[in-house]
Design a protein that fits this description.
27% helix; alpha+beta; disordered N terminus; Alpha-Beta Plaits; globular; 329 residues; 2 domains; Barwin-like endoglucanases; six-stranded mixed β-sheet
């Protein structure tokens, strides 16, 4: 009888402990969830939605005794080993709050911003694919990237489990993509579209409104007394000289920011594809930080850079000619 009387109390204590454990797990998942057997399962019964989640970089973290430091890496281009993951993680939450579907072109990476587009090339057979990086991992040995089951099939290494690959960052992926933009990215890959043009091209090409400024102007209250370039990211490919000697060169003025942190964020968004300058403007209204792309040697590239900036949310971006920029300086 004593055992029978104690039993309900033990059950109650167990339920409380289980509840606390579940609550702590949910809190941990909301802070920085990692896809795995312990992460939440998609609650619906139909197709898994694509996209959503959040833009996420995250703080340094430790897994199995190793430290990883997520950060913006605009010129990321590395070679290493790819593996793949599937059934054990299917329909579970990824690190940025999306849902993992092993039948879509996605991947996990330990440190790249989420979600991002990367081009992955199988070094053994030359196959290549654009995938959406929306998860953290892999954390086994020296593996560099974990591909979804479908991505592994596309690259031709599902049967062998691993393959040597080259991973190149293209840029940030949209949060609200239902799969059509990723599909368009792979269509651009098949067309041979340069990586820095792919995001804008997949978004619809000439849909963005192109504005051409004959003369660069600022509101009177914002006229700078001095202008200093405080950051510059050179292009991956050598650009022509300034173009001021008669050949036209172009810039895309992305925007002016009072907060230098916002200017730096805009610079990092675009630095993987275009040369970026952050110019400090000091005037009577305080200091502003102007972000601009360039110099860009031809108008089609300038239009593409503009479309890329607009696609990333900089809707007031505009193209200006080198001569006008030269006069303003």
């Amino acid at each position: 009888m004593r055992h029978l009387s104690i039993f309900p109390a033990l059950i109650a204590v167990g339920l409380v402990l289980a509840s606390c454990s579940s609550h702590n797990s949910q809190q941990q998942a909301s802070r920085d969830p990692f896809a795995g057997k312990g992460s939440p399962l998609y609650p619906g019964k139909g197709p898994i939605p694509m996209g959503g989640g959040r833009y996420h970089v995250g703080k340094p973290y430790q897994v199995a005794g190793r430290w990883f430091a997520p950060k913006e890496q605009p010129n990321y281009d590395k070679q290493g080993t790819a593996s793949w993951y599937g059934e054990a993680f299917h329909r579970r939450m990824t690190s940025n709050g999306e849902w993992f579907d092993m039948n879509r072109l996605t991947a996990a990476h330990p440190t790249l911003p989420l979600p991002s587009y990367v081009k992955v090339t199988n070094a053994e057979n030359g196959r290549e694919v654009v995938v959406r990086v929306n998860d953290r991992g892999p954390f086994v040995g020296t593996r560099m990237i974990d591909m979804s089951k479908r991505a592994a099939v596309a690259l031709g290494f599902k049967g062998q489990g691993m393959a040597p690959v080259r991973v190149q960052l293209i840029g940030p992926a949209p949060l609200d993509d239902n799969g059509t933009h990723l599909a368009a990215m792979n269509e651009e890959l098949q067309r041979g579209t340069p990586m820095r043009r792919m995001i804008a091209a997949a978004a619809g090409g000439g849909q963005a409104k192109v504005q051409m400024a004959a003369v660069e102007t600022e509101p009177e209250a914002r006229e700078p007394e001095t202008e200093t370039v405080v950051a510059y990211t050179p292009p991956k490919e050598e650009a022509p000289a300034s173009g001021f000697g008669g050949d036209e060169a172009y810039y895309v003025q992305v925007g002016s920011f009072a907060d230098p942190g916002n200017a730096e964020k805009a610079r990092m968004q675009l630095a993987s594809s275009w040369p970026v300058q952050v110019v400090e403007l000091s005037g009577g209204q305080g200091t502003l930080y102007r972000v601009r792309l360039g110099p860009i040697s031809d108008r089609p590239d300038a239009d593409t850079a503009l479309e890329h900036a607009v696609f990333l949310g900089h809707r007031d971006a505009r193209v200006i000619v080198a001569q006008a920029m030269h006069a303003a300086l």
